[in-house]
Design a protein that fits this description.
Blueprint lengths: L8 E6 L6 H15 L3 E6 L13 E4 L3 E3 L7 E3 L7 H18 L3 E5 L9 H13 L5 E7 L10 H12 L2 E5 L7 H4 L10 E3 L17 E4 L7 H14 L5 E4 L6 H10 L4 E4 L5 H7 L2 E4 L3 H9 L3 E4 L9 H11 L4 E2 L7 H13 L12 H12 L3
Parallel strand pairs: 1-2, 1-6, 2-3, 6-7, 7-8, 8-9, 10-11, 10-13, 11-12, 13-14, 14-15
Antiparallel strand pairs: 4-5
Helix pairs in contact: 1-12, 2-3, 6-7, 6-11, 8-9
Length: about 375
């Protein structure tokens, strides 16, 4: 027997394989839903990052799965061992048990079926559990604004078919005036009636941080950020820059890379693995040097500093390159490709960025977390 006045429950699945961007975005959405009065359970399956998904939500951690390389072609456990069938069965059992215990009114799956095909072994059973539940919950896909392109033949058809058969809605966390789903998903017309644009999931406008740095260098999660960091150190020397620099490698940077970078970093530059106050640091900065990940760009849109973007493009990745090119076309960013990245090219880009007039921020909706919560509540008739 379920009380008719109980809070509506949301079951939110998120699997980050390499960086932490998916986890950060999902955490912001989960917080907004909880603040709106929903009872939220967040299920995570990637590396454990302190402070995420945050307070105010229930958290279920599945046995950890990571990408075994930057091309996402394999899966590994927390110790780097290949994921085998017994491990997958344990994950499926843990996920379905968490679903039954949560007994949700709505289920949100981050990325799938547009991404996370590697997790089909547990997500297809979850779709079956949702469909066969006595009180079938609503089912949503939560997806960033720009999808990975160059997908294999048949992938788009499979994605559209899964949306048509199982999902009640697709929450696209972007501004349709900046990029639309059909720009990177050719079969978007098949699911157009289920698509809702939430706006970008940006943080609330942060207060300036207590620490002040003129130049903030960041590499996202850090798993593939060593080249960017080393180029930044070389650019610092090339420019003989006397300003205060802060370098944030990211929590997932391999220890060997971090130790090498630690030895290369001059004493005048502050080096950190992770700063939870990264958005606050940007509020004081003159310049940001970073990849072009979704959350980093959202943070930059809240700040006022100039920026140089080096989009992650290894393993055929296209998402960050598309975002960076669009922002450069709007006059918001200076871009250096990974293929061209070294100390000299980055130093030139830094000089070019700082010669530019004050950048105009694109007029994009940044309230994606609150809008997502509103949409879920609307669909749940709250």
């Amino acid at each position: 027997m379920h009380s008719t006045d109980r809070r509506k429950r949301v079951f939110f699945y998120v699997q980050h394989l390499l960086g932490i961007g998916h986890l950060v975005r999902a955490s912001r959405i989960a917080k907004a839903m909880a603040q709106a009065g929903l009872d939220v359970t967040v299920v995570t399956g990637g590396s454990i990052i302190e402070g995420f998904p945050g307070e105010g939500v229930r958290h279920v951690q599945l046995p950890v799965i990571l990408a075994s390389n930057s091309s996402f072609s394999g899966l590994a456990d927390a110790h780097g061992n290949p994921v085998d069938e017994p491990f997958k069965r344990l994950r499926v059992e843990t996920l379905l048990s968490a679903f039954r215990q949560a007994d949700p009114d709505a289920v949100i799956i981050e990325a799938f079926p547009f991404g996370r095909r590697q997790m089909r072994f547990e997500l297809l059973p979850l779709l079956d559990a949702v469909r066969s539940h006595p009180r079938k919950p609503l089912l949503f896909s939560s997806v960033r604004d720009i999808l990975q392109e160059n997908r294999k033949p048949g992938r788009d058809e499979e994605t559209a078919a899964l949306i048509e058969e199982h999902f009640d809605g697709v929450l696209v966390h972007g501004d349709e005036n900046f990029v639309r789903l059909e720009d990177t998903f050719p079969l978007a017309n098949r699911v157009a009636g289920k698509v809702f644009y939430t706006g970008l999931v940006a943080p609330e406008r942060p207060q300036p941080g207590e620490d002040r740095f003129d130049v903030v260098v960041s590499a996202g999660g850090g798993a593939v950020g060593a080249q960017l960091i080393e180029a930044a150190i070389a650019a610092h020397a090339e420019l003989s820059d006397t300003r205060r620099w802060c370098i944030i490698t990211g929590p997932n940077m391999p220890q060997a890379d971090f130790e090498r970078i630690e030895c290369e970093t001059p004493s005048s530059v502050s080096l950190f693995r992770f700063r939870r106050d990264f958005p606050n640091l940007l509020m004081n900065a003159q310049l940001s040097i970073s990849q072009a990940g979704y959350n980093t760009v959202c943070d930059l849109l809240r700040a006022s500093c100039n920026n140089v973007l080096i989009p992650f493009a290894s393993g055929g990745e296209t998402e960050q390159s598309v975002r960076a090119e669009k922002l450069e076309a709007l006059g918001f960013a200076t871009v250096v490709t990974e293929a061209d990245l070294n100390g000299v090219t980055l130093a030139a880009a830094i000089s070019a960025a700082e010669r530019s007039p004050q950048r105009m921020k694109p007029a994009l909706s940044l309230d994606g977390a609150a809008n997502t919560a509103c949409k879920i509540m609307e669909k749940l008739k709250i």
